[in-house]
């Protein structure tokens, strides 16, 4: 009986050793627990996302509903309209920009964000003549919206602009994945400041509320 156990143990050892010494190519990958966390998905920001769900990728280029970045402002309160519906787009006229008037420093940052993300289409001068259009000579044949010089956009409420930037409108895509909610509102502040009658940046004044220590006027002893 004992010899049988020894033989069996020896056979098992030989089989395991042979398996361990197999240096041939592996035909199948090992099992991975939760592979979506092990391997990141490569998703192009400006790519067509309409068929991602069919491939098992759940990504719509917008933040998770109801989430707020730490230190940021609340997300846009209205959802995206269903195809053929414009109820929320119309209702967005009543949404007010939650950010107070920008100071000179924040306005300069808002201008930078506009030029980086919007200027390629709407132009540095907000005239709809960015590099992508270039007076009709650019790669895009249709002129983007003229934000300064077209009454339609000069009269468009800030909330409706925010809806368009958040969810996209007509040929313009969503910028919710490129810009935070606060950055989008900052850009809208900048656009409105460039339009006729727009509010200019608030001057930054010195802070006089904090008491400063008085100068030490005591006579120091000298050796």
Description:
It is a single chain. With 223 residues, this protein is an all-alpha fold. It has a domain at 87-194: Cytochrome Bc1 Complex, Chain D, domain 2, CATH 1.10.760.10. Helices cover 33% and strands 0% of the residues. The protein contains eight helices and no strands. Helix 7 packs across helix 8 (181-194). The longest helix is centred in the first third of the chain and has 19 residues, at 2-20. The protein is elongated and about 100 Å long. The model has no long low-confidence stretch (mean pLDDT 82). InterPro entries: Cyt_c-like_dom, Cyt_c-like_dom_sf. One of its GO terms (molecular function) is electron transfer activity. It comes from Lacibacter luteus. Keywords: Heme, Iron, Metal-binding, Signal. This is Cytochrome c.
Write the layout of secondary structure elements.
Elements: H1 2-20, H2 35-38, H3 87-91, H4 104-117, H5 119-122, H6 151-154, H7 158-167, H8 181-194
Helix pairs in contact: 4-8, 7-8
InterPro entries: Cyt_c-like_dom (IPR009056), Cyt_c-like_dom_sf (IPR036909)
Organism: Lacibacter luteus
GO molecular function, one term: heme binding
């Amino acid at each position: 009986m004992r010899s049988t156990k020894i033989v069996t143990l020896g056979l098992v050892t030989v089989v395991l050793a042979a398996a361990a010494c197999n240096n041939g190519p592996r035909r199948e990958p090992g099992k991975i627990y939760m592979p979506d966390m092990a391997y990141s998905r490569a998703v192009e920001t400006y790519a067509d996302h309409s068929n991602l769900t069919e491939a098992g990728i759940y990504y719509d280029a917008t933040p998770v509903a109801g989430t707020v970045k730490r230190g940021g402002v609340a997300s846009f309160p209205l959802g995206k309209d269903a195809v053929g519906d414009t109820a929320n787009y119309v209702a967005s006229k009543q949404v007010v920009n939650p950010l107070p008037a920008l100071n000179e420093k924040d306005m300069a940052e808002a201008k930078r964000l506009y030029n980086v993300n919007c200027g390629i289409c709407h132009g540095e001068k907000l005239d709809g003549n960015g590099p992508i259009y270039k007076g009709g000579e650019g790669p895009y044949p249709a002129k983007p919206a003229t934000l300064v010089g077209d009454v339609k956009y000069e009269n468009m409420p800030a909330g409706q602009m925010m809806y368009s930037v958040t969810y996209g409108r007509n040929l313009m895509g969503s910028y919710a994945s490129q810009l935070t909610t606060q950055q989008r509102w900052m850009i809208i502040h900048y656009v409105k400041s460039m339009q006729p009658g727009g509010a200019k940046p608030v001057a930054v004044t010195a802070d006089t509320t904090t008491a400063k220590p008085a100068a030490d006027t005591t006579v120091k002893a000298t050796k």
